[in-house]
Amino acid sequence: xxxxxxxxxxxxxxxxxxxxxxxxxxxxxxxxxxxxxxxxxxxxxxxxxxxxxxxxxxxxxxxxxxxxxxxxxxxxxxxxxxxxxxxxxxxxxxxxxxxxxxxxxxxxxxxxxxxxxxxxxxxxxxxxxxxxxxxxxxxxxxxxxxxxxxxxxxxxxxxxxxxxxxxxxxxxxxxxxxxxxxxxxxxxxxxxxxxxxxxxxxxxxxxxxxxxxxxxxxxxxxxxxxxxxxxxxxxxxxxxxxxxxxxxxxxxxxxxxxxxxxxxxxxx
Length: 268
Hints:
This protein has a single domain, classed as Aldolase class I (TIM Barrel). The protein is globular. It contains ten helices and 14 strands. Helix content is 32%, strand content 28%.
């Protein structure tokens, strides 16, 4: 059986790791390179680095910070934020990333996913999805795919959660993986930072809709929440930020708890 992964996330703004609640009320959480070294030693399975204002500020990802972070870790590193082209992805891989996540630019043009997968392989392409539950889904027109009815109850947001789109999250997940995305990073904006648990209904629906690994993001507050995301949410990995950054839980604690409950994990 494949091991499940525990992944700390570094949300970076202006060269510092930050964390908020439902994408607002941001506070400082430390230096990204120092935290990366800490999590590498802690036994994290992977690390995610997201430049959370690169898209909204219309600038490139901070290559120098990525290089510093990658020099501190010997585990897979995923980098995202402000990736708009194949060349942007190449630059991140050359800076030390193992995988690159795309979000806003992929929504604007899904061909970006196919182009990156063709150039570097699907295993390098992660689609990051920031989504909210909505009461009245609408119909969207995705470039390259035509009209896509939105029948579920989750809406995709872009630009660091600042811009709502007309995309249904479940259908977007399917289209993106068909285009070549090799993994999905699914963040519930409603649950983010609330510590009330992941949106396991969302995760389960998406996991059942695609054949690639799904990373659960947004809402971890207790050890049970990690377990539930893997079992009820059918996720392949669990991601958390503030719980780890502020010392409320340790990576080793989470992995030990999961192992005790029968979830296969890599030993620390």
